[in-house]
Amino acid sequence: MALQHAVLATLLDHEYSGYQLAKIFDIGVANFWHALPQQLYAELGKLEQAGLIRGRRVIQHDRPNKRVYTVTELGMAELERFTAAEAKPSFFRDDLLVKVYAADRTDAVTVMAQLTERAEQAKSKIALFDDILMRLRDGRDEQEFLRHGSRVGPYLTCLLGRSLEKEYHDWCLRCAELLGTREGVRDDA
Amino acid sequence: MALQHAVLATLLDHEYSGYQLAKIFDIGVANFWHALPQQLYAELGKLEQAGLIRGRRVIQHDRPNKRVYTVTELGMAELERFTAAEAKPSFFRDDLLVKVYAADRTDAVTVMAQLTERAEQAKSKIALFDDILMRLRDGRDEQEFLRHGSRVGPYLTCLLGRSLEKEYHDWCLRCAELLGTREGVRDDA
DNA sequence: AGGCCCATGTAATCTGTTACATGATTCC
DNA sequence: GGAATCATGTAACAGATTACATGGGCCT
Questions:
Q1: Are residues B106 and B132 in the same domain?
Q2: Residue B90 · residue B116 · CB < 8 Å
Q3: With contacts defined as CB-CB under 8 Å, which chain A residues touch B152?
Q4: In the structure, how far is the CA atom of residue A75 from the C1' atom of nucleotide C26, in angstroms?
């Protein structure tokens, strides 16, 4: 009852096929939700059955045919109902955090390596967000765009994604450095 | 295969009962993982069966008896194995983000209200984190504690939790304000 | 007596992941 | 001919949530 609304929200701007949605919801592009292709195909089926979206077959000659979806009026109503309803508490889950939590009782060196690697990944993701933000602004000044642009929702969620990724990045480097100095201290003892 | 390690990591510092773990993993205190009591009781059963933790009955007179758990050597080995293994991609899921994404097509006023309310919640959580951090430092200077303290893992994860919560808080207020000015603009048109 | 906190679960259901399966077209 | 991308699923399993169930002790 949750991926459903993420799909509806995504289909607001564009009609997409399951395959296209799968790329959007894949790690890297999905800045506000994540799902695997199988889940999306299943969800699209359910949404169409429920009449919240409508599918349209697109014949393609250069590649396999596909089915693209748009939100129906019933779907819009459902999205509005969801918006008004109470939000479930958000959550953030991360193996690396568990590893850092235990790091001074397990293997700090391994964790350090993973932290620096993760910092790199965060860096790429920030670059990706900057890219998306620039494309959404499309030449306009940010202030101007946010005040008068016709569609700012995707931009705003992207801004949050960028901020969080930045914090995560800095934290990784700080932790890695710290665990390094502690390792050094331990060697001296 | 994931909550498991979060539980093991938590039991490193202390022996806890299912009930106590439930409070730690509940919204508010769990800064790096979330789980419901039922899940924890089930997980503790599985972990004990697998020999990764050991339970001990504690007789109490003022309140119901309980069973507290500690990590076994096998459990430590498993935690080390997990630390060395590849981490699954982290994820963050949030209804409010979906709502903001769709806000300029649904009801911006409702979303604004939820954003300001959420900002308040974030504020309390930051205060809670500050509290926990202070208790962990226990009078020591942060630099000093991080360099020479015997157990910094929990402190580090808490620092990240605080940073992310702070970014989330600021973003909520910024979004709410922005949606407000846009609403104003729309009224003028 | 009623409400709250402590303490521990079972059962049913829903959601998400892993493994498997198929087939077209394009590029090298 | 083989790999990559496009395109869509099914089936089995693992993980998480919701609903339900129970009972003692403390405080007012």
A1: yes
A2: no
A3: 103-104, 178, 182
A4: 37
Specify the 3-state DSSP secondary structure of A98: helix
- The whole-angstrom distance between A60's CA and the closest CA on chain B is 30
Amino acid, single-letter form, for residue B151: R
For chain B, the domain total comes to 2
The model carries a pTM of 0.94
Flag if A32 and B152 touch (Cβ within 8 Å).
Answer: no
Q: What is the mean pLDDT of each run of 10 residues along chain B (189 residues)?
A: 93 96 84 92 96 96 95 97 93 94 96 97 94 95 96 96 97 97 61
Residues A184 and A104 in one domain: yes
- Note whether A9 contacts B102, CB cutoff 8 Å: yes
- Residue found by looking up tokens 């009609």 in the block: A15
Tokens of A51: 């009449």
Determine, yes or no, domain membership for A63.
yes
- Dihedral sign for Cα A101, A105, A109, A110, please: negative
